[in-house]
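Q: Given only this backbone (133 positions), what sequence would you predict?
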């Protein structure tokens, strides 16, 4: 991953059922959208459910959830988020039918540090948690 791009994983022990844990895909997507909308015009952003954010029609960010549990309970859940803040992979580096990769900087001219992005993403994720409790 190029320096300046964002990648983070949130580890949770949600103590809930699988359907409730799955809601975190949507709350993470909304939080990611809110964070990107601070630098990009909201009308240029699209949520491609359940795990991608598009900017001007190109993939700028993705979300991956993984979980484990026994029976109906989820013991742990990870939410991985990657954002092309400064650079995107070349089209030859992704599957032929994949959405065109883009970066926030190339599409908007905006530069955002990974630290600032993490701060705002964590704030928006925390705010979204109220919908799950």
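A: Predicted residues:
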């Amino acid at each position: 991953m190029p320096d300046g791009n964002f990648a983070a994983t949130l580890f949770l022990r949600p103590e809930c059922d699988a359907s409730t844990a799955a809601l975190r895909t949507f709350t993470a997507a909304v939080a990611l959208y809110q964070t990107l909308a601070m630098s990009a015009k909201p009308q240029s952003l699209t949520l491609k459910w359940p795990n991608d954010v598009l900017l001007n029609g190109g993939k700028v960010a993705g979300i991956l959830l993984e979980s484990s549990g026994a029976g109906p309970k989820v013991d742990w859940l990870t939410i991985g988020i990657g954002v092309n803040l400064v650079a995107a992979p070349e089209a030859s580096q992704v599957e032929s039918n994949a959405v065109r990769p883009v970066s926030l900087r190339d599409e908007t001219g905006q530069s955002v540090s990974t630290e600032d992005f993490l701060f705002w993403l964590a704030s928006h994720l925390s705010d979204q948690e109220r919908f799950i409790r």
